[in-house]
Amino acid sequence: MGKKISGHISPDFDRYAAGEIPLENVRCALCHKSPCECPEFGTPEYFTMLDNAHKRK
């Protein structure tokens, strides 16, 4: 068996796709803030945040 793949989308994606809010108001799928306040991609802090979001150890 392969690894399970999971993904997260912004909590605002449906409203954005429906044209109800502009892109700049869409919250990040990982930190849930707009603008995004995630650590820089590739840093240990970023991957810790990603692992926590996906409930990986």
What's the total helix number?
2
Low-confidence stretches: none
Work out the radius of gyration.
13 Å
Q: Order of helices and strands, N to C?
A: HH
Provide the residue-averaged pLDDT: 89
Q: How many strands, which pairing sense, and closed or not: the largest β-sheet?
A: none
Beta content comes to under 5%
**Relative helix content:** 25-40%
Shape: flat
Total strands = 0
In whole angstroms, the N-to-C terminal distance is 19 Å
Task: Chart the SSEs and their pairings.
Blueprint: H1 13-17, H2 44-53
Short description:
The protein is mostly helical and 57 residues long.
3D structure, described in words:
Helices cover about 25% and strands about 0% of the residues. With about 55 residues, the chain is mostly helical. It is flat and about 35 Å long. The mean pLDDT is about 90.
List keywords for this structure.
57 residues; mainly alpha; 2 helices; 26% helix
